[in-house]
UniProtKB/TrEMBL annotation:
Annotated protein name in UniProt: DNA-processing protein DprA
Superkingdom of origin: Bacteria
Stored Gene3D superfamilies: 3.40.50.450
Domain annotation Smf/DprA SLOG: ranges: 96-310
Record SUPFAM superfamilies: MCP/YpsA-like
PANTHER family registered for this protein in UniProt: PROTEIN SMF (PTHR43022)
Length: 383
C-alpha cells in the first residue's frame, strides 16, 4: 500500500528545503522519482535533467536560476536528518501523507497540470481522515479584518453546512476563517490548511481552537515541523484550500485580499466559486461584489444556496467512507495490536514488534481504510 518507503522519506525531506509547489521540482519528481532527486540533492550532484512541456510559451526552466536554487537546496538538505524529522513529527502527533497514500485527497492531483504547482506531500495532524473529510466539503474564506456582519454570515453558513455533514475547509486565520472553523467544529468537522509547521500555532490566538479541531478534524500543511510562516507561503497555501473542495465561498474580501487569490485558484481549477453580497458601503465586501459583477461567482446567502450551486455533493453519502483494501503483513500485525479501549502508538509499536515510524505509517493506512480511529489515548478499533 502506498509509495515505496524510500520515496516517501525523500518526499518528507524535500518539504524541508524546497518551497511548496515548486514547478521545477514537480517535473523532476515526475521523471526521476523522489528517491533519486533527494539522493542527488543531498550528495550535491548536478540536478536531474527534465523534458519541458513542448509549446510556444516561455521556458519553464531557467538553467542559471535553477542551478542557483539547486545549490541553495543542497546546502539545506545536507543538514536534514530525515529520521529525526519523522520522529519529531510523530512525537507531535503529525503524520506525513504522500500522494499515493490512501489518505491523499484525489482532488489535489488536479494541481499536476503542466506548469502547475502540484503538491509533493502533506503533513497532517488530527483524528480525522483527510481524504474522507474532503470528499464532501466546501471552502469558506474571507477577510482577516472581517466585520461583525461577515463573521456572523460565515458562522451561520459553516454551522448549517456542518449540520448536513459537509466539512468546512479554511485557512485558520483570524476573521472569516476563524468564524467558519469554530462554527463548523461545533456542529461537525472542519479542515484547517496552514502555511506553517503544524506544531507552530499561527496565529497564536487560535492555538486552543486548533487543539480542539485536531480531536475530530485535521490540520494540514505542506511545511514540516518547526517551519514558521512567511508572507509568500500564504498565497501558495491558498491553492490547496481551493483544490481540496469542489467549491469555494468568499464571504468578505477587500479589493486586495488573500481570499481573492483563493478564488482565482478555484476558477483555474474549474471549481464552483460563490460569493456572499454585503453592504454596498462596506470596503470588506468590494471583492465579493467584483466577483459577482464579473460573473465569476454565483450569489449565495445561505447553506441551501451553497448546496444548490455545488450540486454533485448530493451524490456523495455523508459520513466516513470505508476503503476496502488488502493488508500487508506489517499492517495486519499493527491492527492486531490495537485495542478497543485505545493506546498510544509507542505501546502499539512495542506490542507488534515494529518501529514507531512504520507503526505510525500503518496506523494512517488503517485509519484511511476505516479499520482504526483516533481517540484521546491514541488509537483504537472503531466503535
Amino acid at each position: 500500500m502506498g509509495e515505496d518507503r524510500t520515496d516517501v522519506r525523500a518526499l518528507a525531506g524535500l518539504t524541508t528545503v524546497v518551497p511548496p509547489g515548486d514547478p521545477w521540482l514537480g517535473m523532476m519528481l515526475a521523471e526521476h522519482g523522489a528517491a533519486r532527486v533527494w539522493a542527488e540533492l543531498v550528495a550535491g550532484a548536478p540536478p536531474p535533467t527534465v523534458d519541458e512541456v513542448p509549446g510556444d510559451g516561455p521556458r519553464m526552466v531557467d538553467p542559471e536560476r535553477s542551478a542557483a536554487h539547486w545549490r541553495r537546496w543542497h546546502t539545506a538538505a545536507a543538514r536534514v536528518d530525515v529520521d529525526a524529522l519523522m520522529a519529531a513529527s510523530a512525537a507531535a502527533g503529525i503524520r506525513f501523507v504522500a500522494p499515493t497514500d490512501p489518505e491523499w485527497p484525489g482532488r489535489l492531483n488536479e494541481l499536476q497540470a503542466p506548469g502547475g504547482r502540484r503538491s509533493h506531500g502533506l503533513w497532517v495532524r488530527g483524528g480525522g481522515d483527510l481524504r474522507n473529510l474532503c470528499l464532501r466539503s466546501v471552502a469558506i474564506v474571507g477577510a482577516r479584518s472581517a466585520t461583525a456582519y461577515g463573521e456572523h454570515i460565515a458562522a451561520e453558513l459553516a454551522y448549517d453546512l456542518a449540520e448536513r455533514s459537509v466539512v468546512v475547509v479554511s485557512g485558520g486565520a483570524y476573521g472569516i476563517d476563524g468564524a467558519a472553523h469554530r462554527a463548523a467544529h461545533a456542529a461537525g468537522s472542519t479542515v484547517v490548511v496552514l502555511a506553517c509547521g503544524l506544531d507552530v500555532d499561527y496565529p497564536r490566538g487560535h492555538a486552543g481552537m486548533f487543539a480542539d479541531i485536531a480531536r475530530t478534524g485535521v490540520l494540514v500543511s505542506e511545511r514540516p515541523v518547526g517551519a514558521v510562516p512567511r508572507a509568500k507561503d500564504f498565497l501558495i497555501r491558498n491553492r490547496l484550500i481551493a483544490a481540496l473542495t469542489p467549491g469555494t465561498v468568499v464571504v468578505e474580501a477587500g479589493r486586495r485580499s488573500g481570499a481573492l487569490n483563493t478564488a482565482s485558484h478555484a476558477v483555474d481549477l474549474h471549481r464552483v466559486l460563490m460569493a456572499v453580497p454585503g453592504p454596498v458601503t462596506s470596503a470588506m465586501s468590494v471583492g465579493c461584489h467584483l466577483l459577482l459583477r464579473d460573473r465569476q461567482a454565483g450569489c449565495v446567502t445561505n447553506a441551501d444556496d451553497v448546496l444548490a450551486q455545488i450540486g454533485p455533493l448530493g451524490d456523495v453519502p455523508p459520513g466516513p467512507v470505508r476503503v476496502v483494501t488488502e493488508l500487508t503483513p506489517e499492517s495486519a500485525r499493527v491492527l492486531d495490536a490495537v485495542s478497543r479501549n485505545g493506546s498510544g502508538p509507542a505501546v502499539i509499536a512495542q506490542a507488534c514488534g515494529q518501529g514507531l515510524e512504520p507503526t505510525m505509517r500503518s496506523l494512517g493506512l488503517l485509519a484511511a481504510a476505516g479499520l482504526v480511529e483516533r481517540c484521546p489515548t491514541g488509537w483504537r478499533l472503531p466503535r
